[in-house]
Amino acid sequence: MSCQSLDLTTKKSKRKRRTLSKISSVANILSPIKPIKNAAQSLQRSFSFKMPSPAPKQSHTPYRKPQPAKSVRRPSKLFSDSVDGSLANLLRESGQIKRQEAIHELYQGEVELVEDLSMVKKIYYDPMKLLNLITEEESKKIFGIIEELVPLHKDLVQKINQSRNELGAVENIGKIINDWSPCLKSYTQYCANQSFAKSLLDEKKENPKVRDFLQRCQESPFSRKLDLWSFLDVPRSKLVKYPLLLKNIIKKTSEHNNDIIDIQSAITRIEAIINNVDQETGRVKCDFTLSRLDFLDESTESCLDYCTTLLCEGILRNSRGTKLNTFLFDKCLVLTRPATRNNRFCYQVYRQPIPVCHLIVEDLKDGEVKMGSFRASIIQNKDGKNMFKVSSDNPGQGASHTLQASSEHDKRQWLQCLRSAIPKKQKQSATGSSTNIPKAREANHCKKPTEEQEVSLQFHDSQLETFV
Description:
It contains 19 helices and eleven strands. The protein has 468 residues and is of the alpha+beta class. The strands form two sheets. Strands 1, 2, 3, 4, 5, 6, 7, 8 and 9 form a nine-stranded mixed beta sheet that branches. α5 (97-130) runs antiparallel to α14 and α8 (173-180) runs parallel beside α15.
């Protein structure tokens, strides 16, 4: 071996360094860090033509509750804010500003009503049909003639605006309302349909798609955190406010103003329309409720054949604490429990109905009756509050029931309605001789309901709502 072979400065050594660099690159490939990852990705790309990636699965995005949106509240607008300050001062000096404020309250309510009804059609009515959430027939039952109400109230807004003088004031509001009021007769059909509309809307909410759509709308700013039914009930609540608004205008009007005569005439017309709406709605509500009653004993149906008006309805508890959906018709008192028959919601009649001509109502003091079963009443010692008792003076015409209302207020309302439903002749015979009782029963069996019985009240758990 020569010494030259050990010289590290020769060309051979340079070739050796190049070989080491290649080895180091190979080591990088075999290293367990990032380079091996890049190699795996390159291999995957090289074989991608042999193994096509599967198509992405299409799935509906689950509903996620959005961030709480700011509810859009309508600012309260006064008449003095809608006109120039100098004009408002002129009206204030002439003593007309209070009257114009009262008229503006009625006018602003009409503007807001038009906005709400237009929003219902744009946000609920049209999209629910377009998305096939409801059929054409179902839309007519839920929304009724709401499309016809929009131009009706737009017409009143236009007439009020056209009657303004150079100061922006309205002088003949009585004549305007009096001439326009016959249009409110269409409310008879709309309000009478609400019983069916509410029932169908509750059934449609069982559909997850419908429930999701309504929830998204309610949580949007335009809804002001109100649900669909709140908007559908706005026309009815507006109808009963007209006499109050007009009476308020009379209070702010001078006695020498001839417009008072027209306002009083308009009040009379509108109250007559409200009375007709109330009667028709009560009749339809009665028929609708009767159609949902399920009888275990068909013989109990006979006492309901003469019912024409639903006076009260609500939830009461018996002495065992069982919830009973109670209905007071003009001819009998019916206690029921909710049930489902053939995928249809109904009210199963509990015990035998009590005809009002045999009805006895007894007020009970707090603590006089123990609540719960016999064992629970002894162990827990629960005193019953807001209790009353209903029974029949004829053992073959209904059983005795001890019932509990949700509050003292509801108890008083129930007692008032039950006692007013009892025929007057029966009350007189109860204080007199007992021999007159059968005649009183026979005479009042098919008698038309009195004016007191025409009052339609509705209970929802602890709340009492006026039914019109």
